[in-house]
Amino acid sequence: MSHDDARERAAHLVPQPHSVLLGAGVLQLPAELPVRLDVPAQERAAVLRAIALLPVTSKVVAGRAVVQVRLGAGATPPEGYVLDVTEDGVTITAADRSGVVYAVQTLRQLLPDAAYRQAAPSGTLWVVPVIRVEDSPRFRWRGMLLDVARHFLPKREVLRHIDLMSAHKLNTLHLHLSDDQGWRVESLRFPRLHEVGSWRATSQVSHYSDEAVHDGTPHGGYYTRDDLAEIVAYAADRAITVIPEIGVPGHTGALLAAYPEFGSPPVPDRAVHTNWGVHDALLAPSEQSLEFLRLLFDELLPLFPSPYVHVGGDESVLRAWDNDPVVRAFADKRGLSGSAEIFAALMAEVRQMLAEHGKTPVTWDDSFATQATGAAAESTTTLVMAWRGAEVARRAAAAGHDVVLSPVMPTYFDYFQEAHPDEPLAIGGPVTLGDVASWEPIPQDWSQVESARVRGIQCQMWTEFVEDPRLVDYLLYPRTCAFAEIAWGARTQDLHRRLPHHLDRLAAAGVEFRPLTGPAPWQRGGTGRRAHRAGVPMAERLANYAGAAATGTVADSPDP
Ligand code: ACM
């Protein structure tokens, strides 16, 4: 391992830090690393767990140390850090624990790629260059959605993705825990949710636009309350907040399979859905279903320390409420007319339930757009997650909402990565690596007030067509590397130069990313049921979504 290698690594950091000053010389970390903590007592254990992300064993010392951590208010911007490496040692300065985690992650990138293995080849020398890095993020919300509802991701996979998120300085894991095709949380109060809602008898394996073909194989899984506590704590140690999504009133097919009496209209023999697309399974706005939701949130929300809870609100086919006497009674009692007003009243109740737990609601932009067509606008306390393009995001920002930008183009990483027959079956596409790398999240013509409402950005890993966790790796990486650059925001143009080296780190970590030259033979769609489908042209799809967002309506699956 030459000194030149260590200096080279300073040129291949991802995401690129804001300021890097490379000095002369190197430092070799000892296998047993003396660490001195200038850290408030209540933060010491957590800071030591952050140091433990390095591939060497650390021991706390009072005197001379190789690594010194200084944690103090105002030392850097929030989540920022200064990493100072000299030939004598490393000093990490940060205002908060997240900054320490990010300093450690940058230090890890300066070490040999073996730092990403679970155990290093013997003889690996942990050499880092002399360097000073000053760094802090552009966006406060640097998110990734994992859809564990359509296809369950075992806990070990979620933990692995948390490791990878942290390595890329992402800080928000949005767990999509409920949908028409699966419910993924143990409930002691309502056990049928996990007993009945967590599995389906079969899954659609064909594309939307083809005849529905099913695999005939049961699919399912759920996280126990202890699993979720573990995931939340593991994430917190890596500076990641877990935001749960329990969506209403649409996308509730699995919930209603467990408790059909809360559906509208009540269908006694509902099953967990086995087809993809937009379904008309809706939670009923009724006193009975509101009481159910309240008890459910009382049980589940304490599992998540996050200040935010995502309550869905997307793709709710409100006409399913028409002609339901239960909904009519609810509307009459409250003097509501029209489905947008009934929807608004339901979401207001949900908002109140969250407020009782000190939580701020997050909804998809459909919720904002639907309410914009009725008499009662969405409360501006709700954070709007805008997936149907920049225009609806801007409207929400202008109306006073904080927004997270999660547009289909270029943050839906379930879309294929190149318009090429080798790419495996996906809903459509392409969303290329270049699309992600060249994305400027906030259009130039937004006002300063609107821009200031942007809390951050998020990439989405929906899993309708992703039954194999290996495919999750393929779809997330390297697009997530480019996404992390945008989220962190150092605005460099040379990711293409750094990325091949960074992918060596991911290879060492065992990530089955898409090679820059295209899929490996076993990653291709082939000619079987995973064969490539072009789907609806991207421009048409985006126009459909933007049009629906503009009118407050639901865009049904835009495929024929
Ligand atoms: C969404 O894609 N329905 C948020």
Automatic annotation (TrEMBL):
Enzyme Commission number, as recorded: 3.2.1.52
Alphabetic keyword roster: Glycosidase, Hydrolase
Domain Beta-hexosaminidase bacterial type N-terminal: from-to ranges: 12-135
Catalytically driven reaction(s): Hydrolysis of terminal non-reducing N-acetyl-D-hexosamine residues in N-acetyl-beta-D-hexosaminides
CDD domains: GH20_chitobiase-like
Transmembrane segments: none
Residue ranges that the Swiss-Prot or TrEMBL entry lists as coiled coil: none
Superkingdom classification of source: Bacteria
Gene Ontology biological process terms, A to Z: carbohydrate metabolic process; glycosaminoglycan metabolic process
GO MF terms, alphabetically ordered: beta-N-acetylhexosaminidase activity
GO cellular component, one term: membrane
Domain Glycoside hydrolase family 20 catalytic: 139-489
InterPro entries named among the record's database cross-references: Beta_hexosaminidase_sua/sub, GH, Glyco_hydro_20_cat, Hex-like_dom2, HEX_bac_N
Catalytic residue positions: 315 (proton donor)
Protein family according to the UniProt entry: Belongs to the glycosyl hydrolase 20 family.
PANTHER family: BETA-HEXOSAMINIDASE (PTHR22600), BETA-N-ACETYLHEXOSAMINIDASE (PTHR22600:SF57)
Name recorded for this polypeptide: beta-N-acetylhexosaminidase
UniProt organism field: Kibdelosporangium phytohabitans
